[in-house]
Amino acid sequence: MRVALFITCVNDTLFPETGKATVTVLERLGCEVVFPFEQTCCGQMHANSGYQDEAVPLVRRFVRAFGDPSYDAIVSPSGSCVAMVHDQYRRLAAGDPELAAQVEALVPRVFELSQFIVGELGVEDVGATYPHRVTYHPTCHALRLLRVGDAPLRLLRAVRELELVELPDATTCCGFGGTFAVKNADTSAAMLSDKVRAVLDTGAEACTAGDNSCLLHIGGGLSRGRTGVRAVHLAEILASTG
After folding, report:
1. Starting at the edge strand that comes first in sequence, how are the strands of the sheet with 230-233 ordered?
2. Domain boundary among 71, 86, 120
3. Residues 216-241: tens digit of each pLDDT
4. Quick check: is 125 in a domain?
5. Are 191 and 175 spatial neighbours (Cβ–Cβ below 8 Å)?
6. Do residues 35 and 142 both lie within one domain?
7. 152 found inside a domain
8. Domain tally for the chain?
């Protein structure tokens, strides 16, 4: 299967190891992974902040970058950005019939990593080993908009030597929300405090999720508190062999 890697701007800029881990996992599962160099931001920051018109050119660029029909799938280690494509692209492209048709053809081929591995490849055991106690935070967009369900948990349960512990109030937002964390800093910090306490209550060595944006927020709280608990993207756990 020929897969195009949709890295996202956050991962490309701040978390390149997550992109490398994604490639490692997909290649281990027999996929041919290609990286379209024309890709940039998906436009989520613009659309979510009210700049709808400014987001449309980024929709066009995404279609150009990933519209190659030889790609069987477009896969990303970010439920948030994939949810943007699935949830908002059709609306943003509605004023341009040609762009709308291109979006309609492309959206069904765009997947979040765990969603793709479990739902499309039919795999739960990716051959990973990670000898640590881990808790999982389901990110809001992946959970509520993309509806990845228990795919990440199924993958984690199959990782050798990993002890998966349930996160209390797991579906509660961590407080990041992109620009929300800047515009509503006090509220965001209070929500983060609750999430960090929940993570610590598990006794986990690591907190994982499918979005580095949320892990940046949670990891920052864990680091500032000198808790010794690290934030690790799901892809990096799945790529690990011990």
Report:
1. 163-165, 133-136, 206-209, 230-233
2. 120
3. 999 999 999 999 999 999 999 999 99
4. no
5. yes
6. no
7. yes
8. 2
